Amino acid sequence: MSLTLLQVVVSGLLLGAVYALFSSGLTLIWGMMNVVNFAHGDFVMLGMYTAVVVWTAMGGGPWASVPVAAILIATLGVASYFLLVRHIMKGPMLAQILGTFGLALFLRYSAFNVFGANFRTLPDTLVGGSFVLGGIRFEGARVLAGAVGLIVTLALHFMLTRTMLGARMLAVSEDATAAQLMGIRPQRMQALAWALAGGATGIAGAVIATFFYTSPTVGETLAIVAFVTVSFGGFGSVLGALVAGLIIGVVESTSAYLIGPVYKDVIVYVLFVLVLWFRPQGLMGKT
Amino acid sequence: MLRISRRVLVAGAPLAVLGVADESFAQDVVKIGAVYPLSGNSASAGNYSKMAMEVGADVINNGNAELAKILPLAKGGGVPGLKGAKIELIFADNQGTPAAGQNQTLRLISEEKVAAIIGAYQSGITVTASAMAERYGIPFVTPESVASNLTERGFKWFFRVTPVAIDFAKAYSMFLKEQKAAGRKVDSVALVHENTEYGNSVSSVIAEVFAKDGLNITQKISYSANSTDVQPQVLQLKEKNPDVAIFISYTSDAILYTKTMKELNWKPAIMIADDAGFNDPSFVKTMSSLVEGLISRSAFAVGKPGTVPYIFNELFKKKADVDLDDVSARALEGFLVLADAINRAGSTEPAKIQAALKATNLPADQMVTGYDGVKFDDKGQNVLASSLITQMRGGQYVAIWPKARATADVILPYKGW
Predict the structure, then answer these.
(1) CB distance B286–A117 less than 8 Å?
(2) Between chains, do A137 and B235 touch, taking CB under 8 Å as contact?
(3) Largest CA distance in chain B
(4) Cβ within 8 Å, pair A217-B39
(5) pLDDT tens digits along B265-289
(6) From A32's CA, which of A50, A166, A178, B45 has a CA 20 to 30 Å away?
(7) Which domains does chain B have, with CATH numbers?
């Protein structure tokens, strides 16, 4: 394998970890309550703006903006749950789709109003420069984002599958009434799911902002990737999102490099359709 | 039911416009529709263009003493040819998609009853929006869309003020040949372009012109402007390492390329960016320190105090906090050309505006841009449009070519960051 191809694969893996990072919140909410959050991309967008504001207001890098974004977007998640999602869940499926879609538009155009249409970027020196390891170039910001992606998704996965809290949340998602009979408060668990998803999404936004551009519509671009990653990996499975994110990242990079950038989406979607053909529930989704 | 009401709409719209026209002496506003990307990935460019046109409308409606010495329409009090009717700009958001551009154009025509339309920034959207205007017989002026086929469709209501791909391609080619004569290496050229109407058509025109002029295009990379990642493209470039790289990109992708090239530490000796994204004020504001020495094109240079571009730039700065750039200056130019035609038409009737546009003959000293004037050929193309080659120096573009209009010398190789 040539050195350039190796660089392409490494770039793809790092990109994939980021895809997993900003998809984990989406898959978590689906897994917990069977609601597709169409405002997910715009949650990421607000996390990115948080990083931009933290930097412009006080010159803080990701160490400052990641916790701020996590708390802010987690709060936004909980608020969305209590003010909107809790109510629309009682309605038909269509109400849920349109409800969170409306939230997406509200957030997007509020961002237009507050921040304007300008593209913002953070200085590339914020996370430190790049380094060369075995002939492969690593960019500080991307390595950080990739590492955060791995840590956050693995931590979420661990929490859901290995802790009492995770067991309670899964119990609510499987049968809210039965869980209630066992002394678990479904609403509290669901609000917690939104807080966790919001927190992860806020973290995602804050680290992505260090190497990506921020604009009010950036959520649209990212949301498409998130939806593909989540359904590829299996709706509801955080680990699935991680594996799918890594696969998509590498397939995108290598096909763009070997065949041509315009074809990378074709390859990814063909793979996507094939996976859904043989495993409609996604790589790691439950049937 | 829907079908019937649409038919009624189709039949009714031109009549309604005519109806308004008959009472032109009584009306106090003339509506101009503007279809621009106010959201979506090119929203930043669209919003600056919007502000530039609003400055233009304000000058015509409320006057500007300094400009009135040069521009007949700047005396204030609206459009004289329409008994002082004020210009009302009605903006519609094309959302960065050809379908929305088309729907919004239909809405402007059938519901807002605009007298003419201006738009739509992205060539791919101008294609669909202008087709709608053509069907209804409403004049459509594009100040900035450069895809060559736009004026090759035999449209009767379509007018383009901007210079086009072939003009830029020739300018780049002549510029590169001069660099070659000066001893710089230009043996291999890479063309990197986004894959909608704009990128495809400009890149193919450049390829044609370069082939004729003996410049070798060794690499062509087509990509989607909505990409989340451009690392593979930059690695392809790095591997082939061409002497010259030409980028035809919108804003979001321009930012990604700039950042990624630094990350992967690759730069060509000569880097050319075909305007668009690389000229967007929000790009220049945040990324200019990473593209020092970038070659671009522009129709706009601020010029000396007392000139039309200088005064308009001062007015624009007050509103937008940034200088006019190539895209917003051309949008303003397009608006002024349309306003001049409406004034001479003395009517809001589309056919009269169309006739007035055909008879447009504006001199160079009335230009906001560096055009030699405005005069349309049979296809609706401004034959007096021209373009400068610029270079990024310390946060702003300065004119470096042609020699006659240059304000600074060329500095190569490309420095980047």
Answers:
(1) no
(2) no
(3) 71
(4) yes
(5) 999 999 999 988 998 888 998 899 9
(6) A50
(7) 2-163+303-374 (3.40.50.2300), 165-298+388-405 (3.40.50.2300)
